[in-house]
Amino acid sequence: MLYHLYALSHAAVTPWRTAANLGRLALNHPANPLSYSYPAKAASAALEVFESLTRHYGKPAFGIRSIERRGARITIQEEVVRSKAFCELKHFGRVGDASPPPRLLVVAPLSGHFATLLRGTVEALLPDFDVYVTDWIDAREVPLGAGRFDLNDYIDYVLEFMRLLGPDLHVLAVCQPGPAVLAATALLAAADDACQPATVTIMGSPIDTRRSPTEPNRLAKTRPLSWFEHNVINLVPFPHRGCMRRVYPGFLQLTGFMTMNLERHLSAHRQLYHNLVAGDGDSVAAHRAFYDEYLAVMDLPAEYYLQTLKVVFQEHQLAEGVMQHRGHSVDLRAIRRTALMTVEGEKDDISGIGQTQAAHELCSNIPAARRVDYVQPGVGHYGVFNGSRWRSEIAPRIRDFLYAHPRRA
User: Fold this and answer.
1) How many Å apart are CA 304 and CA 310, to the nearest integer?
2) pLDDT in tens, 232-249
């Protein structure tokens, strides 16, 4: 019912948003003699802020057209190399590059935002790696006939992609997929599979959420799983392709993230208004670029959300060594030949300090010479994989680590 009310309210405000757009265009039109006056600029700015706050933000595009490598400009062409019901494996192919660099699989989080949130991550990695990304599909657009999708299916997808890309692959997990990537690596190691990755890099990930618990971690522990199932799981409304699918709606996840830093977001939109009035185009463009991505959210399959909540955040099964996948034990001690790097942000309020580092203790049979742990000073969760410090301080360290371990031991 909540999802239907949300869809109805969004539809109800559509005429007002259209009127705001028309008013803004009229106020800004060069033929309008008042367009350069302060009252017109103030009114236009207010209308734009209203429109941006009530708009439905669709899935953005990666939009990476080219990169520079070794002084040469290389054209990038996106291609889907494996299509699944809930995910597409996207490749950023190089046109005319005769010597592609090592393969790197970036496992994007399935936690409410689209994989394009990692655009900055991919851009920084492309000059040095042949990058593949898990581009998760919005559950509200997956028909019921495609079946269910849970954490076990997620791990199956990761296993399939690892095997598809072959031996000596490098894998980077950003935030939420850390436990699934470690589980998949452990399963391959236990089976002595030739497709065990050369390296695994885990960034800002909830490997053991009992360490430095954050507000989302505490929320997951304060209520039983049944409370979440009854209060946050909704049915997708018509006319979406996934109509009647049980999901955890993206707008609920977004609401939770925004309320954690509500004053900062309110301040950003107040500043947007002042920048629009002042005609500060660069600041306005930066605001739009960030929020066009941040406000674009996707729904999660209910089975996946609830199982992840139970296994990772409530029962800590991976950290306790009792996690199972399709009847097989997930024992991280089986990982011996894959190098491991962990990255955390000093000010991360989603995955606290130590939660990602826990992977080193759990993967106890990886030699010390094949481990790296790095904590980036001065950044929060988003800054671990995006922004200036990601580009200048974190990405170079990851590049050096991956190049130091080009294949399995």
Assistant:
1) 10
2) 999 999 888 999 999 999
Residue that is last in its domain, among 269, 294, 319: 294
What is each CA distance from 71 to 52, 127, 197, in whole angstroms?
40, 10, 30
Q: Does residue 242 lie within any of the structural domains?
A: no
171 is a domain residue: yes
Distance CA 208, CA 203 (A): 13
The per-residue pLDDT for 1 is 66
79: in domain: yes
Domain ranges, residue 153:
66-219+300-404
**What does the pLDDT look like over 186-216, one tens digit per residue?**
999 999 999 999 999 999 999 999 999 998 8
Please say whether the beta carbons of 177 and 108 come within 8 A: yes
**Which letter does DSSP use for residue 70 in this model?**
T
Question: How many Å apart are CA 324 and CA 311, to the nearest integer?
Answer: 10
131 is a domain residue = yes
Q: What is the pLDDT of residue 255?
A: 77
Are 22 and 134 in a shared domain? no
Could you tell me if 192 and 270 lie in one domain? no
What CA–CA distance (Å, rounded) separates 246 from 314? Answer: 21
Dihedral pair phi/psi, residue 355, rounded to 5°: -65, -40
Domains of the chain: total: 2
**Residues ≥6 apart with Cβ < 8 Å to 166:** 103, 195
**Residues 153 and 38 both lie in one domain:** no
Do 289 and 322 share a domain, yes or no?
A: no
Query: What would the mean pLDDT of 116-126 be, rounded to a whole number?
Result: 95
Claim to verify: residue 193 and residue 304 sit in the same structural domain: yes
Reading the block at residue 13, the tokens are: 């405000």
Q: Which residues, 6+ apart, have CB-to-CB distance to 12 below 8 Å?
A: none
By 3-state DSSP, what share of the chain in percent is helix, strand and coil, each rounded to 5?
A: 45, 20, 35
Provide the pLDDT confidence category of residue 359 given band limits of 50, 70 and 90. very high
| pLDDT tens, position by position, 126-169 | 999 999 999 999 999 999 999 999 999 999 999 999 999 989 99
Crossing angle of helices 14-28/2-12, nearest 10°?
Answer: 30
In whole angstroms, give the CA distance from residue 84 to residue 368: 37
